[in-house]
From TrEMBL:
<dbReference type="InterPro" id="IPR052371">
    <property type="entry name" value="BFD-associated_ferredoxin"/>
</dbReference>
<dbReference type="GO" id="GO:0046872">
    <property type="term" value="F:metal ion binding"/>
</dbReference>
<keyword id="KW-0249">Electron transport</keyword>
<dbReference type="InterPro" id="IPR041854">
    <property type="entry name" value="BFD-like_2Fe2S-bd_dom_sf"/>
</dbReference>
<feature type="domain" description="BFD-like [2Fe-2S]-binding">
    <location>
        <begin position="2"/>
        <end position="50"/>
    </location>
</feature>
<keyword id="KW-0408">Iron</keyword>
<dbReference type="InterPro" id="IPR007419">
    <property type="entry name" value="BFD-like_2Fe2S-bd_dom"/>
</dbReference>
<keyword id="KW-0479">Metal-binding</keyword>
<keyword id="KW-0001">2Fe-2S</keyword>
<keyword id="KW-0411">Iron-sulfur</keyword>
<comment type="similarity">
    <text>Belongs to the Bfd family.</text>
</comment>
<dbReference type="GO" id="GO:0051537">
    <property type="term" value="F:2 iron, 2 sulfur cluster binding"/>
</dbReference>
<keyword id="KW-0813">Transport</keyword>
<protein>
    <recommendedName>
        <fullName>Bacterioferritin-associated ferredoxin</fullName>
    </recommendedName>
</protein>
<dbReference type="Pfam" id="PF04324">
    <property type="entry name" value="Fer2_BFD"/>
</dbReference>
Length: 78
């Protein structure tokens, strides 16, 4: 599922960044872009970081991360 619409980053991309060593939202943003623009998704990114680290070494499934998704509506579409 998409986590960051600004750059089109998915929960899998964030999890992959964490698996590659990112442990903060700034590090994730540097690796895959999620949370680096408007910042609306940073809370979700942090939740995915926590879930991914807690589930290590096997990693989380999409179902275990589904509750972290936000209703991300582009500004102006409201």
């Amino acid at each position: 599922m998409y986590v960051c619409l600004c750059v089109g980053a998915t929960n899998q991309m964030v999890s992959d960044a964490v698996a590659a060593g990112a442990s903060t939202s700034k590090e994730v943003a540097a690796m895959c872009g999620a949370g680096g623009d408007c910042g609306r998704c940073r809370c979700t990114v942090r939740g995915i970081i926590e879930a991914t680290l807690a589930a290590a070494p096997s990693g989380p499934t999409n179902d275990s991360l589904r509750h972290l998704a936000l209703d991300i509506t582009p500004v102006g579409s409201r």
